[in-house]
Design a protein that fits this description.
It comes from Rossellomorea oryzaecorticis. The protein is an all-beta fold. The protein is built from no helices and twelve strands. The chain has a six-stranded antiparallel beta sheet, with no helix packed on it. Strand 7 and strand 8 form a beta hairpin.
Length: 116
């Protein structure tokens, strides 16, 4: 398991085309990827299971705890991106609720993300 940042502070200012905004790039894929939004309610859990393909969990609201194959949970907050390799066992839970975008695909390039 690796933890990255995609917060505003980890982004880059975009000014092309008279634009004025910050963008945090997340991933690039050459093969199809599944993108979804997960809503964990109070005491919600994404149970301990094996990732079929690499997965990137982007915390957008709330907070929780995530772990890989070790029993050590790491606290995650909005702006954190949790990455698991294909075949890696993992779990995420939240006492107060959490909303996250999940990206799953055979090829997830995390080189755009800022390491913690």
């Amino acid at each position: 398991m690796k933890i990255y940042q995609f917060s505003k502070e980890a982004g880059k200012k975009i000014t092309q085309f008279d634009s004025d905004f910050m963008m945090s790039r997340i991933t690039l894929t050459q093969k199809p990827a599944h993108i979804g939004c997960m809503y964990l309610e109070e005491n919600g859990v994404i149970g301990y299971h094996e990732a079929v393909v690499p997965q990137l969990l982007l915390i957008v609201e709330g907070e929780g705890l995530a772990r890989g194959e070790s029993n050590e949970f790491i606290k995650v907050h909005p702006g954190d991106a949790v990455y698991w390799e294909g075949g890696e066992w993992h779990e995420t839970k939240s006492e107060t609720g959490l909303t996250a975008i999940v990206i799953e695909g055979e090829e997830l390039d995390t080189s755009f993300l800022k390491s913690i």
